[in-house]
TrEMBL record:
InterPro entries (alphabetical): PsdUridine_s_RsuA/RluB/E/F_cat, PsdUridine_synth_cat_dom_sf, PsdUridine_synth_RsuA/RluA, PsdUridine_synth_RsuA/RluB/E/F, PsdUridine_synth_RsuA/RluB_CS, RsuA_PseudoU_synthase, S4_RNA-bd, S4_RNA-bd_sf
CDD domains found in the cross-reference section: PseudoU_synth_RsuA_like, S4
Every RNA-binding S4 domain range: 14-73
Name under which the protein is recorded: Pseudouridine synthase
């Protein structure tokens, strides 16, 4: 058994959630949830509290009983027996309705990785950055870069995500004012309790109103969020009396769909990735 370098006080090595994210297990926030739910062991000991630091060369990390190969920082890369730092892949997909944002599903439903070419999935643990529920459509980034995923999803970086939302009824200025002012939403915590957190839309405006007495009136909204909670847009709109009929994410920071059709995927080039990184720096 490797010698334990666990520490809650002295920051030796790498934060456990970062090491896991660098190994392609998910975004850093997802890895934190894996840890706090008791699914992770370091050198045979269950770790369910943070902070925790590990040595990628000497420590053994397991997720659900499976040993994880941790990439090694460049300064430690002289150890040829240790896995080297991985090359990163960035895939932008246009998620259609009915595809779920997960990497696997016991019910056999189509998931977002099914949209990524098999050649890009070979020998790589790719994961989605953030989530879109099954009924929502639009842009989603798939990667194995835990650091960038963390920056794109953590509230402190405030990366803008833009949505087009079709609602039932004719939205009023009063309803939009309530959405801009914000409201508290209740969310379940990993320990089974519930927490209340304020949600607000950075911007919300009416793109078009559709007056149709036969089919029902509708409103197309443009919504921008910089911090997302679970099904936040749907829940906020429901609170002001607007039912979502269609919801599409049309932009992630500087990225837009362009000619990317629903169900399609494209490998991002260096310029697009640099734009994403620049957006996280300008928002920090």
């Amino acid at each position: 058994m490797p010698k334990s370098r666990l520490s809650d006080t002295a920051p030796k090595g790498v934060r456990l959630q970062k090491a896991m994210a660098d190994a392609g297990l998910g975004a850093r926030r997802d890895c934190e949830e894996m840890i706090t739910s008791g699914r992770v062991a370091v050198n045979g000991r269950i770790v369910n509290t943070l902070p925790c630091f590990v040595d990628p060369v000497n420590d053994e990390v397991q997720l659900d009983g499976e040993v994880i190969a941790l990439p090694v920082p460049e300064e430690s890369a002289g150890d040829t027996a240790a896995p080297k730092a991985r090359s990163f892949i960035y895939v932008l997909i246009n998620k259609p309705k009915g595809v779920i944002t997960t990497t696997s599903d016991p019910e056999g439903r189509r998931n977002v990785l099914d949209l990524v070419p098999q050649s890009l999935r070979n020998n790589e643990r790719l994961f989605p950055v953030g989530r879109l529920d099954g009924d929502s459509t639009g842009l989603l980034l798939i990667t194995n870069d835990g650091d960038l995923a963390y920056q794109l999803t953590h509230p402190k970086f405030g990366i803008a995500k833009e949505y087009r939302v079709l609602t039932s009824g004719l939205a009023s200025d009063e309803q939009l004012q309530k959405l801009r002012a914000g409201m508290y939403l209740v969310n379940p915590a990993s320990d089974g309790t519930k927490t209340s957190k304020k949600a607000s839309m950075e911007s919300v405006r009416i793109v078009k109103r559709f007056v149709d007495r036969a089919r029902g009136d509708r409103t197309m909204l443009s919504v921008t969020l910089r911090e997302g909670q679970n099904r936040e847009i749907r829940r906020m709109l429901a609170r002001v009396g607007l039912k979502v009929r269609e919801l599409e994410r049309v932009a992630i920071g500087p990225l837009r769909a362009g000619d990317l059709k629903p169900g399609q995927a494209k490998l991002l080039g260096k310029k697009d990735v640099e734009k994403l990184r620049a957006a996280t720096l300008s928002s920090d």
